[in-house]
């Protein structure tokens, strides 16, 4: 993860709809997201068999990483959002897999749509109760009966409370259903539900340490100890209950945790996280990243090279090497490191390709700048929502003399950042330099005519 691309951890935002209760309502929020090739590849690998078991493998489900220290995950539309705090705290892949299975249960069960219906029903109940209470209050005022007027207030308040509690009860029911469905998915994929129980035990322990005393009828989720009691028997019946994650997957998981800790918690977080194994590869990986982030690239390069000698086929160590070399102003060497990362990485890693293009651009050599534009464009065609990458693409086009394409790339960057007014300005500027009806002109026209959904 390059320093510029990890800046997206704090800068890149997506608009999502979150259902909040009580009373339940849809609230638009800005959620800071993380883009990282290594973490995304690992979490996608966790999700793939679960989504297949849930019948969702062809449903375009995306997993989005949220920059938040709390232990949480949620669903919005066709996306599963997982907090970075969850990734860092979960000590095994199985814990994250259990969380994904639970969220997949919500999507496969159509819980969001039914929740919308329940929200509408609860709102209707509250409105009817308020109108009935208002009628009684008006009647009391007309008859000069204070008791009748007070009764009207009570009817309105009581009706709203009944609607609220009904909605919370419905949500708790859906959560319990998603828990049971998650265990079915884990069984279908030959995986243990022990990670789910560990998650609930952690949450229960956190509530106990905080001295939290919760009314079980006033929350939207079953209490952790209640969930453990409901699921433990079913989980232990599985023939896969004692199955452990493969050692190589556990290593990748711990390296991911080290990366998240180094970037989000500071230099001291990694030794705290791996105090039982301070000389293991995950701890060394986190230390190399921390050294790079704290401005000591020469030492970071030595540490990265030592790790590569231990794991020569790990693409993300080559990515780290490229990041460090960029900071050392050794752009061509950085580009070579990124090229190796792309060759070693599974699939078509668009984010790594953007990093490769960024390194080529940093060389300043005209032939490599042209290649940078091609690599950046290809990477962004695979990761079109990665707004930060368009800035480098615009620079590459600008240095190559293609000002129209540079304006369009700038428009794309603003568009994917949600800055629609600026996007339209640059799109119109690009159109003035483009042939009417050409692919670039048409894309610019799409941006100009875009209307933000309500």
Task: Label the overall shape.
Answer: globular
**Rg measurement, Å:** 26 Å
Structural class computed from helices and strand pairing: alpha+beta
User: How many strands appear in the DSSP assignment?
Assistant: 5
What oligomeric state is this? single chain
The strand order across the widest sheet is: 1-2-3-5-4
Uncertain runs are 1-28, 132-143, 151-157, 162-170, 206-220
Order of helices and strands: HHEEHEEEHHHHHHHHHHHHHHHHHH
Helicity level? 55-70%
End-to-end Cα distance? 34 Å
Strand content: 5-15%
Main sheet record: 5 strands, mixed
The pLDDT mean sits at: 81
Task: Please explain how this structure is put together.
This protein has 454 residues and is α+β, with helices and mostly antiparallel strands. The protein has a domain at 1-245. It has helices at 3-6, 8-11, 37-53, 84-89, 93-108, 111-143, 146-188, 194-209, 224-236, 247-265, 269-273, 281-293, 297-310, 315-327, 331-344, 350-363, 366-382, 387-399, 403-416, 420-432, 439-448; strands at residues 13-20, 25-34, 62-66, 73-76, 79-83. The two termini are 34 Å apart.
Brief overview:
The protein is α+β, with helices and mostly antiparallel strands and about 450 residues long. It is built from 21 helices and five strands. It has a five-stranded mixed β-sheet.
Task: Lay out the secondary structure.
Blueprint lengths: L2 H4 L1 H4 L1 E8 L4 E10 L2 H17 L8 E5 L6 E4 L2 E5 H6 L3 H16 L2 H33 L2 H43 L5 H16 L14 H13 L10 H19 L3 H5 L7 H13 L3 H14 L4 H13 L3 H14 L5 H14 L2 H17 L4 H13 L3 H14 L3 H13 L6 H10 L6
Parallel strand pairs: 3-5
Antiparallel strand pairs: 1-2, 2-3, 4-5
